[in-house]
Each structure stands twice: as C-alpha cells, then as structure tokens.
C-alpha cells in the first residue's frame, strides 16, 4: 500500500503514522524528518532548508523532490510506503504521480486528519514545545490552508480521499484510520 497522511500541524499525524507503519509494515517517509536530519548533519541541502523551516515556510521543491525521489528508489519502498508531509502542494502531488508512474506504481489512498484551527492552537499552547513559536505555528497552519488543503480536492476527484475526524483519543482516531485503510485495500483489489 502507498498511503499519504495529510493533516495540519499539530493534528497528531506523528502518532497515527507510527501506528500505521506498524500495521502496514512499510517504511515511514517523513519529509520533515528527512529535512531535520539533513539540518543536523549540516549537509548543503540541510543548510539551505533550515532558513525556510525556521520561518515556517515551505522548502523549495528541487530539494524536497530530490530527497523523496532518492528515498523512493530504495529497496524497502518496493512494496509500499507511508508518505507524511509530502506532497504538500499541487505541483508536488503532480510530481509524485510522475515519480510513481515511472516505476509503475501509484498512490492507493490519502487520509486526511481533520482538526479545526482553534483546536490546533489550543493543543500547541498546551504542549509548548521549544520549536513552537506561536507566530511560526500560525504561519504553518496558514501555509497548510493555502497550499496543502487544495490537495484534498485533487485526491477526492480521483476517489482516493478518506477524510477522518482528528478529534478523540489516539485509539479512536486509529480505528478510523484502520477503517480507511480497509477501504483502500478493497479498492486496490478491484483495480
Ligand atoms: P513537518 O515536520 O512535516 O511539519 O515539516 C517541518 C518543516 O519542513 C515544514 O514547516 C517545512 O518548512 C518543511 N517541509 C517538510 N515537508 C515539506 C514539503 N513537502 N515541502 C516543502 N517543505 C517541507
């Protein structure tokens, strides 16, 4: 299964991704994680990306696309993967379709973790992580609404979107995630 998890910052994607990779036995491809690792390692890509990340802005596509493309080439991605944080824009979604098509692959399903903006802000204030500057956080939510939310329509038109309620306990949300995966598996068998 090739699944994309989409949700605004603070929606609880990290928790659900961990459970999902255990369920599906596929690698977790988080572009945020890859970028943070590149920043820590001080690679040229990391140095370039850091300036954007600290501002809550999206890192330029050439960096992101190169990173994802190299990762998708790896052997462990042959039977599937869980994409987290990518694609984040319509051009990235189109690029992903091309990357997969070249390998005779496709996206099986997209899960949207829906959480209202006021709840995201409330959670952020409650958790107060060091990197949670309220202004940067607000920019990341706005970037999600303007640049990433249009993807939901893109995948809905392909019949690949499962929008699930991101409110509740991690267990409750995961049972919704599992139900969505079940629907993707049935749809894949019909193709
Ligand atoms: P995340 O951990 O997914 O919230 O990502 C952290 C930061 O990395 C984001 O705020 C962006 O600056 C950058 N980033 C992660 N994924 C992407 C992407 N697909 N396109 C552009 N920038 C990204």
The small-molecule ligands in this entry are: adenosine monophosphate
Predict the CATH topology.
Rossmann fold
Spans where pLDDT lies below 50 across 5 or more residues:
none
Distance between the termini: 13 Å
- Structure summary, number of beta strands: 5
Structural class by helix and strand composition: alpha/beta
Strand order of the largest sheet: 2-3-1-4-5
Mean pLDDT: 95
Largest sheet: 5 strands, parallel
- Provide the succession of SSEs: EHEHHHEHEHHHEH
What is the number of helices?
Answer: 9
What does this entry look like structurally?
- The protein has a single domain, classed as Rossmann fold, CATH 3.40.50.300.
- Helix content is 60%, strand content 12%.
- The protein has helices at 13-24, 31-41, 44-53, 61-73, 90-102, 117-127, 134-148, 150-157, 170-190, and strands at residues 2-6, 28-30, 81-84, 109-114, 161-165.
- It has 191 residues and is α/β, with parallel strands linked by helices.
- The chain contains 9 helices and 5 strands; from the N terminus they run βαβαααβαβαααβα.
- The mean pLDDT is 95.
- The structure holds adenosine monophosphate.
- Adenosine monophosphate (AMP) binds at residues 9, 31-32, 35, 52-53, 56-59, 64, 85-86, 88, 92, 140.
- Residues 9, 31-32, 35, 52-53, 56-59, 64, 85-86, 88, 92, 140 line the site of adenosine monophosphate.
């Amino acid at each position: 299964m090739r699944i994309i998890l989409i949700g605004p910052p603070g929606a609880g994607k990290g928790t659900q991704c961990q459970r999902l990779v255990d369920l599906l036995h596929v690698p977790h491809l988080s572009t945020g994680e890859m970028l943070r690792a590149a920043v820590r390692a001080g690679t040229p890509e990391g140095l370039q990306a850091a300036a954007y990340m600290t501002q809550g802005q999206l890192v330029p596509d050439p960096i992101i696309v190169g990173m994802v493309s190299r990762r998708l080439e790896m052997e462990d991605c042959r039977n599937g993967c869980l994409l987290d944080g990518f694609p984040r824009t319509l051009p990235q979604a189109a690029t992903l379709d091309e990357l997969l098509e070249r390998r005779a692959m496709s996206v099986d399903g997209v899960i949207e973790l829906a959480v209202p903006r006021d709840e995201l802000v409330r959670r952020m204030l409650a958790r107060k992580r060091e990197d949670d500057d309220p202004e940067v956080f607000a920019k990341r939510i706005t970037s999600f609404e303007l640049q990433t939310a249009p993807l939901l329509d893109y995948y809905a038109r392909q019949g690949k979107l499962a929008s699930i309620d991101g409110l509740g306990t991690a267990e409750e949300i995961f049972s919704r995630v599992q139900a969505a995966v079940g629907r993707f598996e049935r749809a894949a068998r019909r193709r």
